[in-house]
Design goal:
522 residues; 39% helix; homodimer; 20 helices; Rossmann fold
Chain lengths: 522, 522
């Protein structure tokens, strides 16, 4: 009989991750995680990507997992390190992205002394995780890690946070790496599909098929339009989506507009909505005298996707039911967008982006106000994948672009980021440079919180005074994004007209590694 | 009888703050806080300071309150906005700083729909706050605000978080601003002082009087040394302190060293420790085969300060007991530090800092490994106030410097920040420029996580491989802090020798507004 070999808890954690094909760890370690760093160092096949702020780490894990469809691991330093990563974990949670956080803690015996970095990690983790667990001994590490991995799985994916005390990491154990069970994938129920199909037929043009989650992959979109052709229904998607295939002649899925009045108008004629992986449309924020729910009160709601069912299989089943022929993926021929010239306008920016976008690019959209007019024109690009912010917490764009570039080194990443958002996780630039990420970051520099100025008008408070203006403008001082990018090791340029933007985009795509373009709005 | 006037909940909140002399609000508002922005705009006397990341906001509130000794208010946007501010709230909590957070939430009726930005704000707040409350109606806002203000008070101060749903902010009420009751300040108990005094006399040179919290103000330090002269005891302070008066001939208080072995040696001869506002010394982190508690097992522990007692009054009482004469504040004549020349070394950097430091400067210390040798030399400066990081969460220095500069516009602020820390809240540079803060930021650019390299050696894992090196070095790419500063609107220069550092410091102190100096270590 073989003598059981001794490993540290940290080694077992890393080997359990690798056994589950989790081979990338976005990390910001500290002293309490140093034995995990040592274990990663010893493990062949585990890639560690350093972020100099934890919001970069969790955002990158989100971007990575949206594309690889397997969880990324993060490594975070105690409660404050986790806290710094929570905003982008919130976005990942709302996007249904599987993320596994490993958070180091003080050694179990040390916790009673309330050392400076001690805090209530469990409460912090619980607020943004579907699963929280602790490995209180080295022997428990492998099984708890496997439980955490299993907890990330499902449709949609989940956030799991494993808290690892330092003595569980450095302590020795004879246990073996654990294998995690895969989550059960449910088939769509025939009754759900038949009910949805019958409703679409009955309500015809007053029915809306609302696609969300994995129903926004190319094949599902094609199937949805086949159903629309057969039943007369409309097809749409929420305003933001975790991952959506677009361009290359794929039918264009209209989005529900962000402003409440526009959304109400968009949905005013809908008597029946079939939810295909999307939630019932609600307002992003509440406003005095405006409704929270955006569909009419009379509207019938049909959920086509039960919990645990993949919207892709539900969409395929609905297409077979409504349109047994004709739901194959067809791409329409499309007219290329010509290169623009002249001043930077919403239209010329959109044309520059659509004209230059490489085939199979990954576009991360945190353009906020600047991006709304870009959406339609971009559909005339070649095929691309669009990643949207599902949680609304800003500081999303550049970290997610980092993770997407790590996941897909052969595809170009384009991150479109408003300047009001870019500040929040600007440290991502350093990691983009360190990883030679093939990412182009476009900063829309309007030197305003333009979104908040719109919201200010909604308050009806009238013209803003100095204190309010000071909280709604970013022009004193004006950030110089070219300097900021170069300071972080990323080559950058500033453009002031549409031709220059077009050329700068093309140059960035022709080179490898990251590049930042500051689009200086009037 | 007067007709009751109608105000919004937001107006009442602001007027209740002003009635309690809280007139500064560090803010990062979003849509759900727009009515609070409008109320601040309407209120004469409320200053709002915008931070482009919430860690800047909470860190600035910490620095501000440490100097003004009254709470700063923060304004944060829902759960993710609060989450971004939690790491520096953790530091403020550990420092005993009073901070009042106002966190906007969705309107009460909107919460049920799980809109994108909805999250468990109460759990997030609870992890880092002593008090959490909600104002669920406009009528409740004034009294809940007064309760929150009262909850920040005490010795030490507390963190209070008031969650304000948007409809409580925009809704109308006839209530009036509420007045908050001041916390009761307890006098030191005679028995505590007599026990401490008797112990110091009994143990003599084997007794240690450990000063913490407000016992590190100038008068208390003088009193402590009078007690030491009378009893023969030693005087010391923890390694980090929220606020400590130093320089200008004030007796020098030795600190307990950070490395565990050095701390054990420092405390090896201590048979009795009198805690004057400081906690029992414990290790920052636990290590295999090293103790958590740093005093010898035999050591008697005497707490001279009961909960709710100000260490300053306890120290004064102890001095009256042990040394009824001679505890007045005396400053020894001191030899000025001469200007250094030659290469940048630990000594020459310390000399440059001590030689140039303006009288009554506020020094924020986040220099981590680079700063340890600076401490002793700085005592030969003129009088200054030192603010230390009590929670150990990095990204502390520049935000706290911002708050200190807002609190004390007539004093110069010097922030000493390691490059590994500076990244975490680099957005503070933008607010320093916006507020024309009289702050000099010195970045020690060693392009390493030097602290973590020391911790790596402590693991005993031997030489690091590529994966570990990648997580412990910051040199690929090398950050250019001059570019980063200029990108945020702060003038900056890089120095490579001691004379240049001395001149750059002097230049920064001679000008108004912020300035960054990158100290390029070998």
């Amino acid at each position: 009989m073989e003598t059981p070999s001794l490993s540290t808890g940290a080694d077992l954690l890393v080997r359990t991750l690798l056994a589950a094909d989790i081979d990338t760890c976005f990390a910001n370690p500290g002293t309490s995680e140093m034995h995990l760093v040592a274990a990663i160092d010893r493990a062949p096949g585990m890639r560690a990507v350093l972020g100099l702020f934890e919001g970069v780490v969790t955002g990158a894990a989100d971007g990575y997992a949206r594309l690889t469809e397997k969880p990324a691991a993060t490594l975070l330093h105690l409660g404050p390190g986790l806290a710094n990563g929570l905003a982008n974990l919130h976005n990942a949670r709302k996007a249904g992205t599987p993320v596994l956080n490993v958070v180091g803690d003080h050694a179990v015996r040390h916790l009673q002394y309330d050392a400076p970095l001690a805090s209530d990690i469990d409460s912090l983790a619980g607020a943004m995780s579907h699963w929280v667990g602790r490995a209180q001994t080295p022997d428990a590490v492998a099984t708890r890690t496997a439980e955490a991995i299993a907890a990330t799985q499902g449709t949609p994916g989940h956030i799991a946070t494993l808290i690892l005390p330092a003595d569980s990491a450095w302590g020795l154990t004879t246990t073996s790496p654990a294998l995690c069970r895969n989550a059960e994938v449910k088939e769509p129920a025939a009754i759900d599909i038949e009910t949805a199909g019958a409703a679409l037929r009955k309500y015809g043009s007053r029915a809306l098929l609302l696609l969300g989650g994995k129903a926004l992959r190319a094949r599902s979109i094609a199937e949805a339009f086949a159903v629309a052709e057969a039943s007369g229904c409309r097809v749409a998607a929420p305003g933001s989506n975790a991952r959506m295939e677009r361009g290359g002649g794929l039918p264009e899925v209209p989005r529900i507009p962000y402003p409440v009045d526009a959304a109400l108008a968009f949905l005013a004629e809908v008597d029946c909505i079939v939810l295909m992986g999307a939630p019932t449309p609600v307002a992003f924020f509440a406003y005095p005298d405006k409704p929270s729910v955006l569909i009419p009160e009379r509207c019938r709601v049909v959920k086509a996707v039960a919990p645990g069912v993949d919207p892709q299989t539900a969409m395929a089943a609905l297409a077979s039911f409504c349109a047994p022929r004709g739901q194959q993926l067809r791409r329409a021929p499309q007219e290329a967008v010509i290169a623009p010239s002249g001043p930077l306008t919403a239209d010329s920016i959109a044309q520059a982006l659509a004209h230059t976008l490489p085939e199979n690019a990954i576009v991360v959209d945190e353009s906020v106000t600047s991006g709304r007019s870009i959406y339609a024109t971009m559909s005339r690009s070649g095929p691309f994948t669009l990643l949207g912010n599902m949680g609304g917490s800003i500081g999303f764009g550049m970290p997610v672009a980092l993770g997407a570039a790590v996941a897909c080194p052969d595809r170009r990443v384009l991150a479109m980021v408003g300047d009001g958002s870019a500040f929040y996780t600007e440290q991502a630039l350093w990691s983009l440079a360190r990883e030679s990420a093939n990412a182009t970051v476009v900063i829309f520099a309007n030197h305003n919180y333009a979104i908040l100025q719109g919201e200010w008008r909604n308050t009806g408070a009238g013209p803003s005074g100095k204190a309010a203006r000071d909280m709604l403008t970013l022009d004193r001082p004006r950030a110089d994004w070219v300097s900021i990018a170069r300071g972080h090791g990323v080559e950058a340029e500033r453009v002031v007209d549409a031709a220059a933007l077009t050329q700068a985009l093309a140059r960035s795509y022709a080179s490898s590694g990251p590049r930042l373009i500051e689009v200086l709005m009037a």
